[in-house]
Protein 1
Amino acid sequence: MKLEFIGEGIRKDESDHYVFDRSADFDTDIIFLCKNTSGVKTKGNLTYYYGYEFNPKATRKQQEDFRNDIKHKFHDSDVFYSEDADRFVRDGIYRMDELKRLSDFGVAISTASFYGEKTLTGLMCQICWDEMPDRVPCCNLQLIKKMCKDVTFDEERARKALMNTEKYRDKRDVDAAIKNLKAQFEAEKRRGGLFKIKLYKPVIGRSGFIDFLKFPTPAHQKLYETLKEGTEVLVCEDFITSGSTVNEIIRFLNSINPNNKISVFVLINQMRDY
């Protein structure tokens, strides 16, 4: 489905409200919106799509003020008129959709805590999710973290699996293998590392970790299975500053399958280089 957006220029009026002018861009506007300033940037294996850029002539203070206001006050009638901010966000998503179709993604991940969260990122994610096919599983960062950290080792399960092989008929060999697996596991937990089952040997002993994922619903299980197989992943974020949140998501996704192809939708590109 092709989405339509409205062009508009942004400036402040005498009452200190942001004005979204749909008729023309002014040289003094904070963001040019009649002119399409959306674009794409890449860094390593990541692709960033953004809906807008700041006017190069906008001061640092103007940029910071607008970023903070749209991030924290987009529902504040003392700052924005009517639903201007909502329409601005929606149009940014539609512009990014022109660059990379939402229907291309197999999974969508939000840094918001839940669907419909009253934050800028929450609004972005709600718009994206509403436009994506029903088959696409969506989740937040908290669920991805839970998938990766809630790991337990079932010693008896691993022991039974080892004893069913020719190599581990001797109880001493089984005990040594179990001891090694537990030592590896405890060392990783102390380091705070992400759980990567491929690190654990002997391979047959990995069956002790088979139940480490506790899925609250079939939809969550489908999400994990999709990520494990490898897919195109959409991450929604309002702004990229340090990039720490996106980097955290990437770490968790790579722990499931490093071949997942990740794209990030960013509302406004305010960095010269990601």
Protein 2
Amino acid sequence: MKCIGCCIFCAFMVRLNKKKREGEPNVTNFRLTIEYDGRRYSGWQRQGNTDNTIQGKIEQILSRMTGHAVEINGAGRTDAGVHARAQVANVKIRTDKTAQEIQELLNHYLPQDIAVTACEQAPERFHARLNAKGKHYRYRLCDGGVPDVFARNYVCAWEQHLDVDVMQRAAAHLVGTHDFRAMSSVNKRFKKSTVRTITQITITRKPREICFDVIGTGFLYNMVRILIGTLVEVGEGKRAPDSMPAILDSLDRQQAGVTMPPQGLTLETVLY
């Protein structure tokens, strides 16, 4: 009799929960494209010791909207002070709001240095990080000339003039699949693979700045900024362009160049 009573109770609870769910909106996966000025923030990723992150700001608003904790998945984890023109994230939430309504709500409550430039319904299995095939970063640097006053927060000022042709020769050694441990800030306890693939590095001199465009399938912690710092030292004449393979083979962070300041770096696009 006790077993029969348990079965009846379980069946009742299943019907009750089903009835409750019938009145709720479905869970929908939304894809967000996000633009932000990273100067005021401690990076993209939510952190336990601060809520001053891009991910944290967006999650706070969505959590208030839905009435429960929400977690968003970002395509990349930009560091403190680094910007993004088109970061991509996805979030699964139970809501009856449209994508346009969610975009408008986020932009209404987000600070002015963070903007959701697009919001659309995505396939259920879409994941911003796991489905990403690559990322395009751009580093902007003013070498020796008069810096653009209006771009000072997004362009790194460098006193010495740089040789672009020599830097491009050095960059050719970095394109392809290599172990980039020497050009990253990962610690010695890092057990995952440090092999990454860079598909393109283009260095372009413009009227008042140099643009370093780096495209790859994935990047290690501080990898782009250290890679650029190493190329800058080549441009200054401190390193030979043919020294890049030896630096990579060393697997030693001390053999690579400086870590460039964060304000010159922007995540331009995520490739799918």
